[in-house]
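thought: user wants a sequence for this fold. calling inverse folding tool.
action: design(structure=
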């Protein structure tokens, strides 16, 4: 899938794009206040504003709808930066295009539904407008990729992704758990796609925005979308997670934007040496793991011959505790050791189960 980077969208965007603006457009005064704060702030690359708000239950503020669109045009004219809004169906697209909105995004609640995504894609056929696709609410990489593919198949090539975290009812820290690994997998699957992080929806609290933003940049993400309101406490939606323009500028000052190491460019020799050392160590790790699985297979053969269960809880408990202790002595966290060992043990069980299944197959043929 060949797509254009944000800097090539023809909208004057830089390498790292900061998108700021309110969760919902509320009043002309709200936008006027924000424009006054954002004028002459070159770090703000794009203005966001929610116009149609998908709410969990009826009766909450669902956005101003079409009324807000001319106001956003005015913001664009004043700040001379592109304006983006969320669209969830073909009617939204039509209204947005009529009001020369520069960039559209598809929300998490829409990305989960391929019918809606396809409806939006079809309504954009033949239109040259950038579209950003938020991750679906559930941690389903294929749905996220699929939504981007639907846009691409409709002829759009100015595409980006927005990482807003994933619903996890067991998580007590985030509003939407980041699952950084999954976002990084999107990069592996679609290398051209840039990812904008949305720390407001991940944290759900304005105090968490700075740290989440920094982590996103540490992961090499390409921009930030931060909900900003002149008076967050009075906001008509998402009051808890919006920052004031002053807080936004402080956050932007305190975080550091990271550069990627270009694989094609000349890499300094000391970095090259360190990476060579890592390559070498990984080779040894793989050899050692392979040796371990070889012994696992021998244990499997023994179990098969003696009708023993594959999973041996007492032994596994001892192995796990002992290796965690050893790891801790070498400055490796319990959490890391546990997930590493569980992955190895899962594979051991799978291999031995396969050996047992083979026995059954053979028994069936006799
Ligand atoms: C290798 C065995 O089989 C399983 C795999 C283990 C491991 O990977 O260390 C430990 C216990 C068993 O659940 C065994 O029984 O010793």
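)
observation: tool returned 366 residues.
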């Amino acid at each position: 899938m060949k797509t254009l980077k944000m800097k090539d969208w023809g909208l004057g965007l830089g390498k790292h794009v900061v998108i700021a603006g309110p969760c919902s457009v509320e009043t002309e005064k709200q936008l006027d206040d924000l424009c006054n704060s954002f004028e002459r702030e070159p770090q703000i690359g794009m203005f966001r504003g929610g116009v149609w708000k998908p709410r969990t239950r009826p009766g909450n503020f669902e956005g101003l709808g079409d009324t807000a669109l001319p106001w956003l045009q005015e913001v664009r004219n004043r700040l001379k930066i592109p304006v983006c809004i969320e669209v969830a169906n073909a009617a939204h697209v039509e209204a947005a295009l009529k009001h020369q909105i520069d960039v559209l995004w598809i929300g998490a609640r829409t990305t989960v539904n391929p019918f809606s995504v396809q409806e939006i894609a079809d309504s954009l056929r033949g239109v040259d407008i950038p579209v950003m696709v938020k991750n679906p609410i559930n941690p389903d990489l294929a749905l996220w990729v699929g939504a981007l593919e639907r846009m691409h198949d409709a002829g759009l090539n100015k595409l980006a992704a927005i990482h807003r975290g994933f619903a996890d009812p067991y998580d007590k820290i985030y509003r939407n758990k980041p699952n950084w690994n999954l976002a990084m997998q999107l990069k592996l699957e679609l290398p051209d796609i840039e990812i904008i992080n949305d720390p407001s929806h991940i944290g759900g609290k304005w105090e968490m925005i700075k740290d989440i933003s920094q982590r996103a940049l540490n992961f090499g993400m390409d921009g930030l979308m931060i909900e900003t309101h002149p008076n967050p406490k009075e906001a008509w939606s998402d009051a808890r997670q919006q920052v004031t323009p002053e807080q936004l500028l402080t956050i932007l000052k305190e975080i550091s934007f990271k550069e990627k190491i270009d694989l094609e460019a000349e890499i300094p020799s000391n970095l090259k040496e360190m990476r060579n050392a890592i390559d070498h160590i990984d080779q040894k790790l793989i050899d050692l793991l392979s040796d371990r699985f070889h012994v696992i297979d021998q244990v499997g053969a023994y179990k098969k011959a003696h009708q023993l269960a594959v999973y041996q809880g007492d032994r596994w408990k001892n192995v796990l505790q002992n290796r965690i202790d050893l790891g801790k002595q070498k400055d490796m966290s319990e959490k890391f050791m546990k997930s590493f060992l569980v992955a190895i043990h899962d594979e051991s069980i799978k291999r031995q189960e396969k050996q047992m299944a083979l026995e059954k197959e053979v028994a069936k043929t006799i």
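thought: summarizing for user.
answer: Here is the designed sequence. The mean pLDDT is 95.
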